[in-house]
Amino acid sequence: MITAEIKKMPAKEKLILMEEIWDSLRSDEIESPSWHHDVISERQRKIKSGEAKFISIDELKQSR
User: Fold this and answer.
1) Torsion of CA 44, 47, 52, 57, to 10 degrees
2) How many CB atoms lie within 10 A of CB 61?
3) Which of 33, 5, 30 minimizes the C-alpha distance to 17?
4) What is the pTM of this model?
5) How far is the C-alpha of 25 from the C-alpha of 47, rounded, in Å?
6) Which of 28, 35, 51, 56 could form a disulfide with 46 if both were Cys (CB 3.0 to 4.6 A apart)?
7) What is the C-alpha separation between 23 and 1, in angstroms, rounded?
């Protein structure tokens, strides 16, 4: 299937296709990239040290 074919599909069929792709990925072992570990470690460090700032979803939406 190519992108042009996907673009022609109705939204409902696209959603079904996405679900099938996600289901097929569940059985694959996908490793997180090394930078991902670094980002999570830094966020955990900020939480433990009190440096982390948490905002609500509404605040996030307003900041964009």
Assistant:
1) 80
2) 9
3) 5
4) 0.50
5) 32
6) 51
7) 17
